Amino acid sequence: MTTKITVRVSGILVAVVLALAGCGKSDSGGDRGIPSAMDLTKFQQAFPSPTPEQQANLAKVSEGVRYGLYPNALAALDKLAADPALTEPQKKAVADLIEGIKQTMAKAPAPPPR
Fold it and tell me: Do residues 31 and 41 touch, judged by C-beta distance below 8 A?
């Protein structure tokens, strides 16, 4: 009887330790696999109150980066960069993200031939 209780308690302790070990954050890859060169949080913070057009382009940029649709993100960033209402910090955020996307695209492996 005591052996059964000891085995059960040991099993529960092992399960808890394994569960807690799996809950730690990993330092690699950034947020949801997004490369660190493309800091979306920092980019979005540069636009605290965007115009409706800016907001639409920000959504396209975010979607493009999150899903690896970099040409779409670059197109939306080009539209943002052409906006004369951008402040200097916003222009810098756009330029930094464009550079980060280009670096990521350059490092990406070529797609397999069809």
Answer: yes
| Per-residue pLDDT tens digits for 43-70 | 999 999 999 999 999 999 999 999 999 9
For residue 101, give Cα distances in angstroms to 19, 28, 71, 75. 35, 18, 9, 11
Altogether, the residues listed in the chain come to a count of 114
The answer for residues whose C-beta is within 8 angstroms of residue 80's C-beta and 6 or more apart is: 54, 57, 58, 61, 86, 90, 94
Q: How many CB atoms lie within 10 A of CB 57?
A: 23
Dist. CA 3–CA 63, nearest whole Å: 55
**pLDDT at 26 exceeding the cut of 80:** no
pLDDT at 7 over 70: no
Q: Which long-range contacts (CB under 8 A, 24 or more apart) does 77-85 make?
A: 77/101, 80/54, 83/53, 83/54, 85/51
